Amino acid sequence: MASGIPLQLRNALIFVHRWMGVSFCLLFLLWFASGMAMMYWDFPSVPAADRLSKEPALDASAIHFSPQQAYARLQTSEPVSSLRLVTFDGRPAYRFQTGFAESVVYADDGGVLEDCSPTMSLRIAAAWAGQSTALAQVEELTEEDQWTVSEEFEDLRPLLKYSWPDGEQAYVSEAACEVVQYTTLASRRGAYLGAIPHWLYFTPLRKRASVWSRIVIWASGLAAAGALLGIVIGVWMFSPSKRYRYRDMPSSVPYAGQKRWHMILGLAFGPLACTWAFSGMLSMDPFPKLQSGNSDIARFQLAQALRDSPLSLAAFAAKSPQQALLETNSDFHTKELEFVSVMGQPALLATASLNETLLIPVTGRPRAELDHQSIIDALRKAAPPYDITETRVVTQYEAYYLDRKNLLPLPAIFVQFNDPQRSMYYIDPKTARIVAGYNSRSRWNRWLYHGLHSINFPWLYRHRPAWDIMVLALLLGGLSLSVTALILAWRVVSRKVGRGTVRHIQTS
Q1: Whole-number pLDDT of residue 337
Q2: How far is the C-alpha of 132 from the C-alpha of 129, rounded, in Å?
Q3: Strands (E), 303-382
Q4: Alpha carbon 258 to its chain's center
Q5: 127 to each of 61, 87, 88, how far by Cα in Å?
Q6: Within the chain, which residues score under 50 in pLDDT?
Q7: Is 431 left (phi over 0), alpha (psi -120 to 50) or beta?
């Protein structure tokens, strides 16, 4: 009797795995296939690098109002938390952030932008896309569509969507008066092949954020459990001594046909299917208390030590924006001037591209980056009762600081503290910004989510196409496993449907 219990348990596990396979095989197939597309096509967005590339260089001769004069036009006493000088609709303009509000004041005549007219929106969209205003078709969106379904667009509605004959689409927020989403025919096709099926990002589902989140979490969690169950069964059934027979030969696998392939591929790629589904679930933050958690040394506290806020506009009176622009090299084409207070010293941060910046102190000459020791000293001063245990300069991407697209700035300053969570941060010495940070709770998430899901390891990223070859091989293996599961699932369902039909005929 006791000897029959393991067999009964095995049969029960096989039964559960079979029907979980029927339920999730198509989803696994979708995930592996779309994962290959996501390696090279992202969901359409407007990243900072693209925004800067679209902006024209600032024209110093067109700037006639100082920051203080422009702020006076707002007629407010709200402190300025951030200030940038940009080119807006072909004119230099200050963008003031005061509290939760953003205001635009033109730097050429001091005019305040009151609203974003349809004519202005059309000009902004056409300039962004490099298209003719005459060929644009406009549509006002008050609700989500496929490309503006996430919560980040909630406060930006209504949106004006401009479309051109070649498939380009630009979305302008009437609230922010800027392009907040941009798609092309190619980027939309790439999303339909990759991100949309991979994230289950279908508009009717995604617009119900809480429902979508629960569905993705439960689907990926149950899929991981089903894959893990398959691994357990496969290991249980596998015979190292080759006690089975296959084509009159000793075999370690008891099956033939698709079942045989499914077991072989399951033993080889089942762990990938399990960990990939599980790490995908982690991307939805199912355990927020475990994944985030506040560090004993707050990131805000350290960021404030490096860059003060709010700003004192009077501190910038000694150097006008025109003068700051003239101090840059002729080959440095400044797209934005950000007014910052770095460790108590006012400065203008000139940006030409994402990682091409120049810091221009109000009392001093431009410099490419800040003194590293001064940054460390500022952080040490803000850290008590804790202290810094390690500092170093990072000149190439490493385990906790890496980027497949090479967008994270280098060099960076690494700083670790002796607080209970062993907090560590990476600071960009060119801008005095904290660009990455981890504590004891988020470090494990880096490996269980990013490591397992994206296979993002420094060596692979540094030796492309090693990463591409490895990830594609893994995904093709997982895809093959999913195909065998789909074939077996079809047979199970067909058999059940066929039996049900026969019974119906016999009882009729």
Answers
A1: 98
A2: 9
A3: 336-342, 345-353, 356-361
A4: 38
A5: 22, 12, 11
A6: 1-3
A7: alpha
d(CA 436, CA 162): 36
Count the neighbouring beta carbons within 10 Å of the beta carbon of residue 130.
Answer: 9
Secondary-structure class of domain 48-183 per CATH = alpha beta
| Phi, psi at 77, each rounded to 5° | -105, 5
| Amino acid in the structure at residue 235 | V
Cα separation of 202 and 186, whole Å?
18
pLDDT of residue 1: 40
Which token pair is 462? 């540094």
**At which residue do the structure tokens 């670790």 appear?**
416
In single-letter form, the type of residue at position 289 comes to K
Task: Report the alpha-carbon distance of residue 74 to residue 80 in Å, rounded.
Answer: 11
* CA-wise closest residue to 425 among 414, 409, 412, 410: 414
pLDDT for 46-58, tens place per residue?
A: 999 999 999 999 9
**Max CA-CA distance within the chain?**
96
Residues with Cβ within 8 Å of 26's Cβ and at least 6 positions away in sequence, in order, are: 486, 489
CA dist., res. 18 & res. 485, Å (int): 9
Respond yes or no on whether the N-terminal peptide bond of residue 158 is cis (omega within 30° of 0). Answer: yes
Q: Return the pLDDT at 199.
A: 97
Residue spans per domain, the chain: 48-183, 299-438
Is residue 286 within 8 A of residue 217, CB to CB? The reply is yes
- pTM passes above 0.70: yes
Q: What is the rounded CA–CA span in Å between residue 320 and residue 69?
A: 12
d(CA 155, CA 146): 17
C-alpha–C-alpha distance, residues 370 and 342, integer Å? 9
